[in-house]
Amino acid sequence: MKIATMREAIARYVHDGDTIAIEGFTAFICFAAAHEIIRQGRRDLILCRMTPDLIYDQMIAAGCARKLVFSYLGNPGVGPLHCIRRAVEKGIPRPLEIEEYSHFGMVARYMSGAARLPFFPLRSYMGTDQPKVNPRIQFVDSPYGNGQVAVVPPLNPDVTIIHAQRADASGNTQMWGLLGVQKEAAFAARQVIVVVEEIVDEDIIRSDPNRTVIPGLIVDAVVHQPYGAHPSYAQGYYDRDNRFYLEWDQISREEATTLAWLDEWVYGVDDWSGYLAKLEKREPGIWKRLAPGEAWSQPVNYGVYG
Amino acid sequence: MKIATMREAIARYVHDGDTIAIEGFTAFICFAAAHEIIRQGRRDLILCRMTPDLIYDQMIAAGCARKLVFSYLGNPGVGPLHCIRRAVEKGIPRPLEIEEYSHFGMVARYMSGAARLPFFPLRSYMGTDQPKVNPRIQFVDSPYGNGQVAVVPPLNPDVTIIHAQRADASGNTQMWGLLGVQKEAAFAARQVIVVVEEIVDEDIIRSDPNRTVIPGLIVDAVVHQPYGAHPSYAQGYYDRDNRFYLEWDQISREEATTLAWLDEWVYGVDDWSGYLAKLEKREPGIWKRLAPGEAWSQPVNYGVYG
Amino acid sequence: MTNYTPSEIMITSSARALAGERVVFVGVGLPNIACNLAQRTVAPDLELVYESGVFGARPARLPLSIGDPTLISRATLACPMPDLFMYYLQGGRIEVAFLGVAQIDRFGNINTTVIGDYQRPKVRLPGSGGACEIAIHAKKVFIITHLARRTFVEQLHFCTSPGHLSGQPGERAAWDMPGTGPQLVVTDKAIFHFDQETGEMVLFSIHPGVTVEEVQAEVSWPLKIAAELQITEPPTDEELRIIREELDPGGMYL
Amino acid sequence: MTNYTPSEIMITSSARALAGERVVFVGVGLPNIACNLAQRTVAPDLELVYESGVFGARPARLPLSIGDPTLISRATLACPMPDLFMYYLQGGRIEVAFLGVAQIDRFGNINTTVIGDYQRPKVRLPGSGGACEIAIHAKKVFIITHLARRTFVEQLHFCTSPGHLSGQPGERAAWDMPGTGPQLVVTDKAIFHFDQETGEMVLFSIHPGVTVEEVQAEVSWPLKIAAELQITEPPTDEELRIIREELDPGGMYL
Asked: What is the DSSP secondary-structure string of A59-126?
């Protein structure tokens, strides 16, 4: 049985020192998983994400990580990630090793890992200082005499955690909206945890096989966690809580206010239900504020053959 | 205006000597385009497809091609492709140069072409005779000391022709079912012709942006040609005409019967409407025989935000 | 039960070899029926993956090709070709795959490309398709073919897909091939395994009523024979019932 | 019309530079508004591509980030990241892209990584994101930034994204960079082009009321000035109406 609580899934699959990818480009960022990792006190993680976003800012502030592998360090549309800056610039709460790529470089690392290739080629980095500070960025000559190309090595997380709208009990997972690099990050991983807004009957999945992004085949645990991406979002289920992204810019400016926030919102609750209860208490209309209207896809006919 | 008749699209974009890819793995094989190319008497084409299938068997029998680039030469589930065998083994109707890969090799060539990479790596061909007869298959050492990898060069067709269920007038194209390598073949091409069962309002496309496989951006012509993939199929629209695949095994065994078939079914009609009219005359119930039942996808909510 | 066809004992022998397997890469024809039989008997959790990019198929009819539309409707996942080859096959997710052959040598190397000279072929065969990658990446390869001297040859006319190469231990690993190569050859007369040390094909069992001499007559090299040569267990009544009533009621492949 | 903000003249100047362009890679903030303005004025066929993988967006509100859900609903296409970087950007489908900068040198090379030493940074900036690939592959690059001496520097602390490199003709081509590099820098005080021969930034126009001296004061190197220095055409009433009433009625960016 793959269905697990978040507590069980994190306890079983995420260990100190592991390489972890919690992916999702602006959308589908699984804060519920991050908070549970913080609560369980994991240490020395190598955190991988194209955009560390608030999720890794919080995990790094909580002291979970020894290293960050990334391509864009910012609070999108707002400003810097203060906790990660503190770690990089001042070693607070502990020094943070960084390994840095461009977006395409990170995408290529996941693809290389997912495809079991020794490297993945991309036309990037030429003439820049990026390879000078990251010796993993190399160049290879084409055997066809048509140029040189940058390459990056595979990235194979111990665990990849993906948030999505729905999965069946076997972990066949469907997503719509921004698909980011989740499929590649999942296939690259040794273990995969899928966190979903809804667990649906297999028949729903089977009604649209092209919509299935992650096959149950590679999924180790399925966690049912509605609103598990807040303050990020799940397309069609709830909006991004832009207010919180702005608020975090204030909260995270000082170490003390950051730790106070973690105490209250992460350590101070038992689980994601506790977090949601606090959110709703603070702002009773929150889910109404974040509820999108309806815009349904036109169904397509796969046909019955036989 | 991108909407064109098949005659216009082929006349405008397909020229003698061009490199052409009409892709589609078992499904969505655009015989309507092939017949029009035969009728317009194109010569010296370089034909690229993973599975040449009956479509290239017919084009090669008609003398359109000087070269075939492929990975699997067969009438799927039936037997050999007799016309291509005659061309390769006996030079009938003219000698045919071949350039041969594995399936993954062809996929990788399209990906390389679509991604403007000088090569694409794959772990294949080791220990086989394939690189000995195709010098384009090369090997590259990984700079990370983690092995050697085969590489193939980019394939960039002059024209790629794709059949799909629906597109809007700008060429934004949606498909469901077997997606094959069509996206890659289209992005690799200098020009793209999309042939569809239905031209739909842009709103239908916009109701499900993740379903759009080919953006109008890269499409040069949109041809509305219902049943344009017969005897191949369009998922949810009509079934594969397996009877014809079996029949072709007989028709194509001799050059004379093949040419008689081409005379009657290709040269003997003005266009695809003529072909369809003949089909329906021969077998009045054909579309009923090939009509699938209904199996609709469950719609998903993208949400209204704003 | 003695009333079965050669195809039926090939199917049941293949199905039983799938006991405990989890993910199989399947072609149409006999392998398709064998995998479906295994799902209903020895490997209820077996996941069928089609080379066309389909998972968890629930075909409402017997498919003629691996791209049949009946494989897609109500499948759990249908993916484009790059995903299939990069993330599933090369990604190491396939445990067993079935391959057919035109020629096979004693080390399980396979020719599906050409009879005669490549440039001036006597018979032009289909070529690799996905076979070369399957032979390299699937954890195990099972081969189904009819036993015939022109198939079981001393020297391939062309090596399309690698088996155990020259039989040297570690040779596949030296080429960075993740899979273990061919493990099983099922024919209409006998079943072969491969020696773990030498990579050479070994006669493992003969079907009821077949003699070792008959098998050797259809193999071009002097056959190694297992110390404890078996007689293949014939199809059971229940296996035959499933094949005949559920999987191929039209007798398309039998 | 003289009653406009610095942001507004940056937006209108950028929008006008998009005349006749077909495909633009757009970020949020000023470039987003500029592109939307261009669509409504000089480039009705302009296709907006977001780095998050969205085409033909019809946002029902002004997005805070390039991953805002309002960009996806009713877009014509939403694709995964590998497609975006491999087939759209590296594939050569993007004609113009906007980039921001923390530091820029006279050749349009860009730093968005770090102020100070990389290993012991004074200020850790966001890094590349997609900027490095955009700078290499987009046919043209437009830069929008405020004019300031700490931004327009003699020597970058770190080169994140290549411009015209050392200014040697053919240097980008020698590195196999398909795009032509930076073509335009729009600031709150002036607009810069790049010399086709030397790759060096050239003051092309100053905004109304700004002097050349004021511009030079904010640039760390001795500025080249165009032979026919222009005064930037201020925003028209219609442009301002579109910006204020349609594109940013909340005044979020102005």
From this structure: HHHTT-EEEEEES--SBTTTB--HHHHHHHHH-SSS--EEEE--HHHHHHHHHHHHTT-S-EEES--T
